[in-house]
Amino acid sequence: MTRPLNPLWALAARRLVQVVALALIIGTLCFLMVRSLPGDLATRIAAGRYGYDLVSNAAADTVRAELGLNQPAAWALLHWWRDIATLNLGLSLVTQAPVWEEVAHHLAATLRLSAAALGLAFVLGVPMGLWAGLRPGGWVDKTSWVLSVVLRATPPFLLSVLLMLLVAVHWGFLPVAGDESHASLVLPALTLGLGLAAGLARVTRAAMQDVVQSPSFEFARTKGLSDLQALVRHGLRNAAVPVAAYLGVQALFLVEGAVVVETLFAWPGIGHALVHAVFGRDIPMIQGAALCMGLLFVTFNLVVDAACVALDPRHAKGVSA
User: Fold this and answer.
1) Could you give the 3-state DSSP secondary structure of residue 240?
2) How distant, in Å, are the alpha carbons of 83, 196, 257, 267 from that of 189?
3) What is the 3-state secondary structure (H, E, C) of 276-304?
């Protein structure tokens, strides 16, 4: 009899196929969109290299000849497909540095920001959701509902500006932008983390209510366990599955928000690099940054899906095998 495939291995195999398809689709779309933008490509690249005040027709012609921009677009796209098959993202058209090095530098900053935002969401959202689920209708439940509505309805760019004006400009507690110190991470992490924490609190509250109303939780209390003991021994694992699934859905919130938030706060992450690459028509850098953001989304979903499989009691036996 054939032994069934481990759920985690099956999940990893599906995500690997998604990564390959994602790389081809994102790279091709980025190439076609940049090529279709108005304006002379060589002039914009020369402006990125030398500055707009020093750009001339001669400089643009030099860049055009150096980079082979007169070649047909289809030929350049075929070259990129060949390079991506060998994991070669090429050189930046503006800085002439390897795209892998540029992407790795900016990716480290984005991962720091994402980790801080997720940590903040857990610290604020999960305890509030657990309390609201154990005491439905109380002041914590009502407060979390109001905060969830307000924060989820506020666009990241508006929340960024409000935090800048209030915390940095009016109170003078934190830097407005940049990455000169650890304090510079606080405002962009708050911008991403507050909206995520608000939704996480409501999902945790709903999951906690399902656990409290379950027969297993009622039986635990009839044995003489307190609410806290029953929660720790019998409730947290079941409540963690929908919470982890919600984080997988909200991974897109972090990826999309990173573009806006990193640009507004001048945080040197992958979203900030993508915006600058678009202005400079740096096609290899655009492809590398967009591909990295797509892979972040897939990787984060893979981690969350694996956590859901590991936490789900129905899959526990298959994972341990």
Assistant:
1) helix
2) 35, 11, 11, 11
3) HHHHCCCHHHHHHHHHHHHHHHHHHHHHH
What is the extent of the structural domain holding 209? 99-320
48-84: pLDDT as tens digits: 777 777 677 787 788 778 777 777 778 878 887 887 7
Q: Which residues pair with 91 in a beta bridge?
A: 98
| 152: number of Cβ within 10 Å | 14
HSE-CB of 41 using CA atoms within 13 angstroms: 20
DSSP 56-70: -HHHHHHHHHHHTTT
- Establish if 8 belongs to a structural domain: no
Overall average pLDDT of the 273-288 stretch: 84
> Residue 19 domain-assigned?
no
Total structural domains in the chain? Answer: 1
Residue 272, C-beta contacts closer than 8 angstroms, at least 6 positions apart: 106, 262, 263, 266
DSSP 123-177: HHHHHHHHHHHHSTTSHHHHHHHHHHHHHHHS-HHHHHHHHIIIIIIIS--S-SS
